[in-house]
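Thread: "does anyone have the structure for this chain?"

Original post by V.I.:
We have the sequence but no experimental structure in hand. Need at least a predicted one for the grant figures.
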Amino acid sequence: MNLVRPSFLRIALCLLLIAPLFEAGAFAAPAAKIFKVSDFGAKGDGTTLDSPAIQRAIDAASHSGGTVIVPAGTYLCGSIFVKSGVTLQIEKDATIRGSQKITDYPLMPTRVAGIEMTWPAALVNVYEQKNAAITGGGTIDGDGKIFWDSYRTLRSDYDPKGLRWAADYDAKRPRLVQIFNSDHIKLSGLMLKRSGFWTVHICYSHDIEVDGVTIRNNEDGKGPSTDGIDIDSSKKILVQHADISVNDDALCLKAGRDSDGLRVNRPTEDVVLKDSVVRAGAAGVTFGSETSGGFRNVEAYGITVLKPVPVGILFKSAHTRGGWAEDIRIHDMDLKDVAVAIRVIMNWNPAYSYATIPPEIKDYPSYWKVLGTPVPEDKGIAHFHDVHIWNIAGTAKTAFEVDGHPKAPLERFKLDHLALQTQTAGHIVNAANWNFSDIALTTADGSKVTVTDSHDVTGLN
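Reply from O.Q.:
Generated one for you, tokens below.
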């Protein structure tokens, strides 16, 4: 067979003909179309309800994909919904401020605090979408004090009646940002503040990145249950460069509560938390208390935890939660004068964790029955195992407060290269096959870690 090869001259001529096309950008991807919210009627004056106008801009951008620009100004909003293919860009000196009218947040199916139920939508939502982003140098402000106050009023009524467990569900407070049943979403660069309830809730989602957000929920008071970033029965999640000040869990992994969480049975897995600072909150890194679906392949590192945060690393569950944790890696953390460096508690906050409906109450919402559904003991005990913690340094009042369950000891924990200065050493109860190495624990009272009801705990003292 005779092959005809083009001559060098012909190749050169072809290159000369197509070169101008490259130089002119003929093969470049088309620029994303810009949609300014002001063109859709948004005022940015802080008094006009701008969420309908912003939603019109988002809906227009969703038809072909594009960037919705929120320029400088204060935009009073109820719930807005970011659609697939859309970037919502909140520019510097722009604030989306939440309405204080709960009717501006439509009721939608979701999961809240571990159970599936109908709940007000968040201020900013990515709900069953893909390939979207919320970004910019601006602010999303929940203006949540009115919701904090209503919750506290409800608690003052519920607590004496033995209904502490119901208060968080009955006080329907809007979250700040919800990413629900969505994938390939990015949240970046924003100031998030004064959330009415949880700040960023990532639920039933995958391939999510949260990068460079600052969370400030302790302005205008301290908002109850204003978690920072909650990753809930989701996978392939990256959180990095976060700066968090909240009044509850800061960086938190969740996976469902009790009978409903066991029914759904979706783990949180393939998660990386890194290079962040926690200035205020319940703990630096938290697993639980919603543990029913389990946790797998989680790595947390490069995290600084500052006073007055009470706990550095926290695992918490309850006797009705169930679930498990495995292949957990936590390392390179700096603890600055926390109360407890490492805490594991399997009977967390009984007044909240165990739902018992008083017999005199006959008329109650359907989700109370879900919360009160009994869980058999063999399904209710969480099993935490194969956890590696290393390169943890800093100061604390107590090094360890570890309380496993006698019927499910905490198994195969490996702790090494810990450098802690504490007032006292603390205790470990119901552990099995724990290995310590390269531990530098200096206690002001000269105490050693007390280990009881455990076996094969080596290398500690």
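V.I.: this helps a lot. The first helix runs from residue 8 to 23.
O.Q.: and Confidence is low (pLDDT under 50) at residues 1-30.
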